[in-house]
Amino acid sequence: MERAVGFILLTLVVYEVMKKLYVRFYTPLLLPIVTTTGTLVAALLWFHLPYQTYMEGGQWIGRLLGPAVVALAFPLYHHRQTLKRQFWPIFQAVCAGAMIAIVSGACFSVLFHLNKKVLFSLLPKSVTSPIAMDIAKEIGGIPALAAVYVMIAGIFGAVFGPPLLRALQITHPFGVGIALGSASHGVGTAKALEIGKEAAAISSIAMTLSAILAAFLCPLFVSVLL
User: Is the pTM of this model over 0.90?
Assistant: First the structure.
């Protein structure tokens, strides 16, 4: 039990340190989700600690994923007036984003000749981790692998999304928020908050709606086309 608590504290301390480092230097290369993961992996390798040992504490953090799913209702409620005013444009854009995310995952799997378990883990890559893991489990994927793909999608979206949107001359908070929230879930929403409160509000709505849609679309995609 003491060792589990120790690993929980280690994870939280490393994350807080990396978050302060990111605020200090403000570069996408120092995104806390990247640096925290890298630091923890390096520590495990350096001290020759097996992953199972770390997960004595990590599993307790993982159990917070359930409440995190329920908490996704809060952005929808908090921004309900915005959602009411702009429902159809938001819904249409998020639907398009969710379908593109799923199809792009399938195309990636075909291109690199990945097996079905990997494909099923890749399909929900653009939604938040707790829901992506549940979707992957439901359709026959590997939840842990799905979480890795989610992290990669979030990092790439946060790092390359804003420059790409600027290159495409998409600067309106509505468009920026929809793009980052749909493609890069919570990491993208955190990046949207750095751009502006309106972009972050739209991004949180897009993130939540994308997760809901993916929960329906991924099983449908698998049952109809695979």
Answer: no
